[in-house]
């Protein structure tokens, strides 16, 4: 049996590893000239770690550096809006891990045979019969996995009438700062903008910023430094510690709900199926869940029944995560006077509210 995976990012490579471990021949078609990840940090939450356990890589990822759960949310002046019980979250759900995205990609690549990897293969068309037309010819497989991201060629090929990704109204910057003391994984909310910092095991700090903006607009590092200059420490220092070429900016999109993730012998996963806002940090984790679920259901039930079962399991869960993620980030982007109401109301909410709100995301068990 053979699986062809379109896209060599985290979700696609995880699917390839999952199928390979079950004895399938795998082929990973990646448009880029090499398998790498241009990105910043990645927080792998407990459900993502359980998915990695299913493909034998959980312990290797944990060895890269365990991390604390999110500490909470502050205002721009440093006062707490939401303060989480980090110890309780760790006891209830298990550890978090923070890694560089490229490190996780390297780990996944190393778990695959070299002849399964086909960089520099640009996919042109994917057909429901399991054939993939690409720059190197045509591949055929028992199952094709569309893991080619938010602007998926696989999705456009087989769902041509479905609306494309939609801009949610804010853009995102990411960078990794040199080692700097920070008080845990914290998000800071202003008026239509926010800043997050996440300590990495080697002392560096993964940082992200989001701000309301017109789609396609671009803001450089100098303007970001001015914009956040009066926020509480360590925000100005973190921005001052990096160079402009270290900052990545991408507009934030989500994908309207698909009626199915499966067509013929083809299944979508990750952003190609359910691109979501990053507010819950679940994008990569949901792609990992998709990958192990798809390989399990198809291998254990056969192609047709397995693809149907994958669709039945994954669409309701990812739909719920997409909606919760959009809702979770909305208050951060409120302007006055709603933001003032938010700043008064949030500290009055029960301390355990955050833990309860994210429980559905973290509580996940693999399909058998």
UniProtKB/TrEMBL annotation:
Residues 3-325 form the FAD-binding domain. Keywords: Monooxygenase, Oxidoreductase. It comes from the Bacteria. InterPro entries: FAD-bd, FAD-dep_Monooxygenase_BioMet, FAD/NAD-bd_sf. One of its GO terms (molecular function) is monooxygenase activity. This is FAD-dependent monooxygenase. It comes from Amycolatopsis tucumanensis.
